[in-house]
Every structure is written in structure tokens, then in C-alpha cells.
Amino acid sequence: MALTRVSLSCSARLLPSPLLQSLLRPFSSSTSPLRSSRRRSSPIAAAFSQASQSPHAVREGQVTEAPMPSSTRPWKPTCLYYTQGKCTMMNDAMHLEKFSHNLMMDLPVNALAADKVKPQKLDYLLILDLEGKVEILEFPVVMIDAQSMGFIDSFHRFVRPTVMNEQRITEYIEGKYGKFGVDRVWNDTAIPFKEVLQEFEDWIGNHNLWKKEQGGSLKSAAFVTCGNWDLKTKVPEQCKVSNIKLPTYFMEWINLKDIYLNFYSRRATGMTTMMRQLQMPTVGSHHLGIDDSKNIARVVQRMLADGAMMQITAKRQSATGDVKFLFKDRIM
Ligand SMILES: [Zn+2]
């Protein structure tokens, strides 16, 4: 049984109020000393970064409507310190007002829909949507129960490139995350891929999905990706760059596009196409990995409720490294 812990631990520290006052002062981000700092920030620096941004400046992605049954709850951007277990402002009412600290609210389950789910072979689905073309910049995973469709937990880390020089990283991050207003939280929190995987292994270990001593693939669980790129191409490439042996839990996965094609008998080349065809609104910022993972998780919930079976679509042979695809009809 996996733990049904909802969220990552988050140090809820109360800042002394004069300090808090000074932290909340408006200032220009371009003059912030934090901007050029590449070290992981202190909890206070993290609080500073988040508190200093207006909600509009923080996440100006393609916000549409919230997936709530009730229209009373306004959509809020998720606190990206919180998703990484690094929010220090859990006692700050203003901060809580501006940012969501509950991923479950973005993935509500309708009990009637959950009743329609067919018996699944897998217990848990780990929806993964990497960001970063040159090197991985973000590693977001949303875990849902395959049978009840309920949100169980998430694992989210921003990833600091291994071989790219500082100037290139700065340009890359400003270009990619600046438009969402989350380049500062990226700079405050990003850690190397090797450390991300160590923390991820602790996380899957805590959920009893994998044990380092035993190796092998995930137990009663599988990654779900939108396409084969994440696990066929990008993770092995990043492992080479980071000088890591490809972990055994990355050897098989579910390509949602193939499940979608075989279940609905229609092609969808990406997440937004699926959502358009299913008449589901996208939520959050497209190409912010944690938001895309939540949107893909919502597509998975919908497909489960429609009667789809989630099963492995690709396996990598450990001897040769070749990937074998298990479905005849698939998106090329
Ligand atoms: Zn927070």
C-alpha cells in the first residue's frame, strides 16, 4: 500500500514581523541580489522572492477556468516553493490568499465518474511531463490512484543544467520561465539532475513503489507521458550528460497518445489537442511542467472515467537499450 500522504513536507516557519514587513516591500526584480545568486536560497530568501511578486506578475500563462464543480473558488497559481517542499510562508495569510497550496483542488474527482472506471492492472499512475530541450529544467510528477482516480501526491523539482555555462543558463531560464514570471523561483530552487533523482528515489521509496536494493521497474505503478520523448529520449540523454546510469524505473512507460488513439480511435498529437477534442479547458501555464502534468492527469482521469485501460506501451530492453513498442497502432 502506498502512503496516502497528500503533500510534501513544508516548513511552516513564522517570520518575525519587522522582518516580514521589510520582505514584503515592493522592489524591482532586476535589482535583486537573488537574481544572480546560483546557490540554493535560504528559506528567508525563498519567502522574499515569492512575497515580492504580485499574483499577476507571477503566473501570466494561458489561464482559463478552474476545473472545480463549484464556480465560487477563483483559480490561483500554485506556490512553486510549496510543490518542491520549500515554502516558508504557510503562516502568511496574504501568501495563502494569492497562491494555492493544495494540488488536490486542481484534480477533483466526481464520485459518479469514478464508479465507471474499469478494473486496472496498475494501482498508481505517475504523470510526468519534463521541460527543457537542451538539458532538463523541470521534473514534475503527479501521482494518482488508477482505480479511484484520486490525487495522491506530487513530486516537483526545478533542475539546474549540468554542463551549460552560467550565462547560457540565465538566458535559457529567462526565455523559458520568464514569461510565466517563475524564473526567480527556478533560480532559488533548481538543483542538479543527479540530486533530483536521489530525492525522487526517496519519494517512490516512501510510497513503496520501488526499492533501490531491489531495482527493477516500479511496483504496481507506471509513468504516464504524453509521447515517448520524455523517457525514450530525454532522460537517457540527461543521464549521459549528468554521468548517471539510466535508473531501472525508467525502463517502461505508458504513452498516453497511444492509449488515446487505441481507445477513442482518433489521433491526438499533443496534450492541447486531446483537451480540445475532449472539450476540457487547460488550466495554468502551458509549458510550465507542473501545470502540464496536472492537465495530462486530468486527461487521464477523464479517459479512466470513459472506460480506458492504462497499460504499458513501451519497454526498453536492458541488454541492448532498444525500445520495444507494445501497441500496433500508435502515434509516430
Ligand atoms: Zn507557498
Describe this protein with a few key phrases.
332 residues; alpha/beta; eight-stranded mixed sheet; 13 helices; 12% strand; disordered N terminus; binds zinc ion
C-alpha Rg (nearest Å): 20 Å
- What is the number of helical segments per DSSP (H or I, 4+ residues)? 13
Low-confidence stretches: 1-71
CATH homologous superfamily identity: Ribonuclease H-like superfamily/Ribonuclease H
At CATH's second level, what is the architecture? 2-Layer Sandwich
Instruction: Tell me the strand order in the biggest sheet.
Output: 4-3-2-1-5-6-7-8
* CA-CA gap between termini: 36 Å
For the secondary structure, the number of strands is: 8
The CATH topology assignment is Nucleotidyltransferase, domain 5
What count of domains describes the coordinates?
1
Q: Pairing-aware structural class of the strands and helices?
A: alpha/beta
Order of helical and strand elements = HHHHHHEEEHHEHEHEHHHEE
Whole-number mean pLDDT: 83
Helix content: 25-40%
| CATH classification class | Alpha Beta
**Main sheet properties:** 8 strands, mixed
- Assembly state here? single chain
Protein name: Exonuclease domain-containing protein
Organism: Panicum hallii var. hallii
GO molecular function, one term: nucleic acid binding
Region (Disordered): 49-72
